Amino acid sequence: MKLTELIEPLSCKIIHEGSDFADTTIENVTASDLMSDVLVVDKHNLLIVTSLASDQVIRTGDIVGARAVIVVNGKALPATMSKLAQELDVSLLLSPLTKFMACVRIGRLMNTE
């Protein structure tokens, strides 16, 4: 599925569009607040869903080659997080949904393809 297909169903606010934002394809999703758990994920076209509003999420996303990060629960993001997303060219989205509801909606969308 295309990353852009998640924006409306998850009520996302786009914080940073990566250079290939419009063409970004998502095939795998990991939902975690423990970045040590994310570091062991070896999947292509990965989306990270987390409620952790920290620069470490962007750094972890960059290390594992994640296509995008969605921060849930409508958390206030530090300015350094969006700046780092720009520097590392990681797409960053913010959703007001809980992690559970975001995952349910993503799962439904991915299963309709």
What does this structure look like?
The chain has 113 residues and is of the alpha/beta class. The protein has helices at 35-38, 55-64, 79-88, 99-111; strands at 13-16, 28-31, 46-50, 68-71, 91-94. It has one domain (3-111): Udp-n-acetylmuramoylalanyl-d-glutamate--2,6- Diaminopimelate Ligase, Chain: A, domain 1. 33% of the residues lie in helices and 19% in strands. Helix 1 (35-38) links the parallel strand 2 (28-31) and strand 3. Helix 2 (55-64) packs parallel to helix 3 (79-88). It is globular. The mean pLDDT is 95.
Discrete helix count:
4
Number of strands: 5
Please list the strands of the largest sheet in the order they lie side by side.
1-5-4-3-2
- Helix content estimate: 25-40%
Binned strand content: 15-25%
What are its keywords?
single chain; 113 residues; alpha/beta; Udp-n-acetylmuramoylalanyl-d-glutamate--2,6- Diaminopimelate Ligase, Chain: A, domain 1; five-stranded mixed sheet; 4 helices
Task: Outline the fold blueprint.
Elements: E1 13-16, E2 28-31, H1 35-38, E3 46-50, H2 55-64, E4 68-71, H3 79-88, E5 91-94, H4 99-111
Helix pairs in contact: 2-3
In short:
The protein has 113 residues and is of the alpha/beta class. It is built from 4 helices and 5 strands. The protein has a single domain, classed as HprK N-terminal domain-like (Udp-n-acetylmuramoylalanyl-d-glutamate--2,6- Diaminopimelate Ligase, Chain: A, domain 1), CATH 3.40.1390.20.
